Amino acid sequence: MTDSAQLFTGVHDTPVYTNVLFDKPLRIWVAVPAVVGSVTTILLAVLNLASGHALAILICGALLTAALTGIGALVPRTRPNIAFRLRAFTASVRPAVRTSYDTPILARPNLVDNLWFADNGSVYAGFLLSGLPYHLQSSRRKTAVADLHTLLGRELPADSWLYGLGVTQDQRQLLRAMVHGHRDRDDWLYSCAQVADQLADAEPKTRLYWLMVPVDAGRAGHNVVGQATKLKDWFAGRDKDSDSSLNAYIELAHDIANSLPPEFSPTPVTAAMSAWLWQHTTWLGTFTDPLPRPTAGGSITADQLPAAAFDEGDQQHKPRRPSIFNALPSWNKYVRVSATGPHSAIAPDSYQAVLPVVDAPEGGIVFPGSEFLAALDDLDTGAVFDFAINLTARPREMEFRRNDRARGNIDDQYDHRGDVRNGLTELRATERKIAEYNRLLSANIDEQPLSAAFFIHVGAADPRTLDHSIKRLREEMTQSGQIVIRHYRGANTRLWSAFNPGVAQHKSAVDQFAHATTASKWSRFVPLISSQLGNATGMLLGFNKGNANNSAVLLDLPGTARRNHNPCLICAGAPGYGKSYTSKKIVRAELQRGAQAFIVEPDEYGEWATALADVPNKAVIDMAGGDFGCDALRIFPERVAGSYWLDYMIPMLGLDVRSVAVGRLRTLLTPAARDALGLSSTAALMRYIRDIQAPLGAAEDTRSPQVTQLAEDLRPVLLALESWATYEFTQAIFDDTLPIPDLAALDVTIWQTGSLDLPDADEVANPHLYVALSDRQRASIAIYGMLVRLARVTFFNNTNRFGLIVLEEAGPLLNSRTGARDAHLISRRARKHYTGMLIITQNPIKDLALMGDEFITQQIIVPFEKEGIARAVAASAGLPLDEYPEFQDFFLAAAGAEEMRDPTAFDDDHPGPSKTTGSGSLQGRAFFIDEFRRLGAIQIAREPNEILHRAYDTTPDQGAA
C-alpha cells in the first residue's frame, strides 16, 4: 500500500445549503436573510397598512433584504472566514502602524531560562531540535525518519509550535571548530585565518529547528483538558511568577522533552537564545547575528528586548499620487518592520510576508516525496525563508463525535443541496475523507488526531527581493506536491504573530488555517530533516550543494578514529576532476594539525613533492634514484624483519616456499640467528652465504659437515640474490650503504615508484601468467608490498600521533595480492592504531575488488566520464538508483558551455593561455559520504593560498585549476 502525507482539509467545514425556499438549494447565509427579511418585510407592511407607511416599509425592507442576501452570498464557502477577510480588508484600506508597545499580539515576551512568558499569560518552554539525515537515503531509512516524527507528534502537548529557521552559519564558530584541539599549531592557525575570507564569500547557511511547548496548562497543553487545568489553577490562586510555578514549568518541560524521541536531541534554549529568536523573526532577512552560545541560567525582561513597528503595506514609502488620491493606501501585500524605541539601530528595516498553507491534494502526497518544506532550502533569492507548524492534539472521543456531526451534515446536504455547484461530487469527496480519517483513528488506538497549521515566513531587505522570492516560493510549492499557499493583503501583521509563541490561535488567525490530520499522516511531511554533512570539527573540505544553503562541510580524520569509526577515505573519479587536488588539501591540513604522512606516488611526475615542497621535515625517495634503501631487514623492527623479508623476497626470487633452501633461510632469519650472525641487511645475508661456500681453487676446505650442507642448501638462494642484485631497480634492496629514512622522525615521506611496474590481479592469480612476469614486475610486487607494510608498522607502533597513509593512483598496488592484503588489514585495524588511509583511484569498483572496501565508509567521488562506471560506483556508495535516477547530476561529467561553443567564437577569448580545465560545469564538485553514512553533493573548497593552489594543480600549461 502506498504511503502518503495527507491533510483532511475541510472535512468539518462543509458549506450548508437549504432548499426551504421554493425547493431551491441556497446557502444558509443566503436563505436565512432572504426568508427572514421577506417575511419580516411583508409582516411589517401588513401591520402598518393603516399608517400610510406600508409602501415605504415594503421598499426599504426589500432593499435591506436584498442587501443582506447579497452580503450572505459573499460569505466565503471555506476558511478563512468572513471575519478574517474583513479584518484584512480593513487593515488594507485603513492601515495603521502597530508596535510592540500597543498591540498585544506583537508584544515582547519575558524570558527566564528556556521559558517564554507571553503577554497574555501563556508560558512556553523552548528547545532546539536536531534535524534527521534524510537526503538521498533509502526508502527504508526515510520511513524510519517519518516514524520518529509520528512519535513526536503524539507526544507534543496541544498548541505546540515547530519552527524551521533559515540562519547564517556562525563563521567565527566555524573557525573555532577548525582550530579546536590544535591552537598550538601556528601554521594551522594561519591556514584557518586564510579560510575566513572564503567563508565570508560563501555565506554558508543552515536550518535551525526550534520547538515551543506550552507548560502553563498541564501535560495536555492548550486544549479542552488543558483549559480545565488552567481553570483549576485559577481557582486555587496559583501565582504564575512564583518560584514554585517556575519549578513546575521547568519540571513539566523536562518531562515533555524526555518523552520525545532521543534522535531529535531536544536541548533547552537559554534566555539569550530566546531573545535572539525574537529579533530573528522580527527583523527577518536583515538581522544576521548568529545564535548565541549556551550559557547557564539568566533572564531577560520584555523592556530589555528591542521593540518593533509594523507598517502594513509600507505606507511610509507609498507612491506619490495626485493630491486628490494621495490619501489612498499603498496596497502592498507585505509589512515593513522597523525598530523603534531605544534599540532603533538593532537592524535595518525588514520587508516581510507570511503565507499560510490553505490546501493540499485531496488524496495526499505520495511518500517519499511529500517533504514540501525542504523546498525552502532550494531557494536562493536573497531572502530568508522560515516556517512554522502549529500542532494541536485533540481528544480522540471528541474528534469522533466531531466527525459524526460532519457526516450527519453531509447526509443532510444530499437532500438539501443536490448537485448545485458540483455538490454531489464535493459531498462524496468529503464523505470519503471523513471515512478515511475515521478509519485511521480506529485502526490504531495510539493514533493521535491533530490539527496542523503551516505558515511560511519570508523576509528580505527590500520589496523587490521579497516579491521575487514569493513568486519563486509559489513555484516551488507547486512543484513539491501541489501545495497551495495564499498571500493575503492586509493580514501579514496579524499572521506574523504566529511566530510570536503564546498568542491565542483565534487572535493570530492560526485556527483559520488548521487542517485535520493524524500524527502518522502529518509525520510523512517530515519537516525536521537535515542535509548536513561532515564533522563538527576539522578542516574545511567544501560546501554542501544538496540545497541552496551552501553549508560548510568539515572533515576530521583523526577525530573519526577517536569516535571509534574508521579513519579511511576513498577518493575516486575520472582524471582531471580534482581527486589529487582534494587529497593534497586533506594531507596538508592533517600535517598542519600535527599528523605524519606516508605517500606512495607511482609516477615520475612528482606532483606530491611539488605540492608539499614547503614542508621542511620530509624525505622524497625516488626508488630509481638510489637515495634511500628499502631493505626489509633494515627498515622493519628486529622481531619481524626476517619474516617480512621472507614474505616479499621469496616470491620475487622465484623460490619454492616448501624447498629446503627456503627452510634453511627461514632458520637463519630468526631474530636470534640474525643477531648472532650479524645479518642486518640483505647484502650481509649474501656475504654470509657466500662466505660459507666451498673455497675456490685448491684451497683446503676446513668447513664442518654441517656448514658444508648448509652452504649447499643455500646455494640456490645465493645465486638468485646475486642475479637480482645486478638490476638498477633493485638497488634499494641490495645496497646496504644507502641510508634508511627515520620514518618516525619525519613529518612526510614520499616514495616515488614510477620506475616500478606492478602486475594486475589476473597476472598474479593465474599461474601461467605469473610465471611470465618480468623481473621488474616481481621486484615491484616486493617493493610496493614492503612500502605499505612499512607504513602500517611505523604508524601502528605510534598511537600518540595520527599517521596518514596515502596511496596515489592506487590501482596497481591494490591489484597485487600483497598490497591488497596489507591495505585491507589497515582498513580493519587503523582505528585502534590511530592511523588513517587515503586511497586515490580512478576505478574503485575494479581497484578495490581484491582488497575489499566493506570497512571503509568515507568516500569523496568526483565525476566519471563513463556512465557504466558511474552507475556502479553510485550503487556501491549506497545511492538507490531506482529512487534517484538523477544520479548523473552527481556522478557524470558535464561539459560547460564555454567548452562546447562554436569554433568561430574564438575571438571572444581573453588574451593569453586558456583557463579552461576541461572538466566542465562540475569542476570542483564531488559526492561525499561521511563517517555517519550521510550522502550529498559538495563543492570542494578552493585552496585560499594562491601559491599552494597552483602547486596542487596538475593541469598542463595552466595557472589555475
TrEMBL record:
Annotated GO MF terms: ATP binding
Origin: domain of life: Bacteria
SUPFAM superfamilies for the chain: P-loop containing nucleoside triphosphate hydrolases (SSF52540)
Transmembrane residue ranges: 26-47, 54-75
UniProt feature, compositional bias: Basic and acidic residues: 902-912
Xref: InterPro entries: P-loop_NTPase
Alphabetic keyword roster: ATP-binding, Membrane, Nucleotide-binding, Plasmid, Transmembrane, Transmembrane helix
Record keyword Membrane present: yes
UniProt-listed Pfam families: AAA_10
Gene3D superfamilies reported for this sequence: P-loop containing nucleotide triphosphate hydrolases
Record carries keyword Phosphoprotein: no
Region annotated Disordered, chain positions: 902-922
Protein name: ATP-binding protein
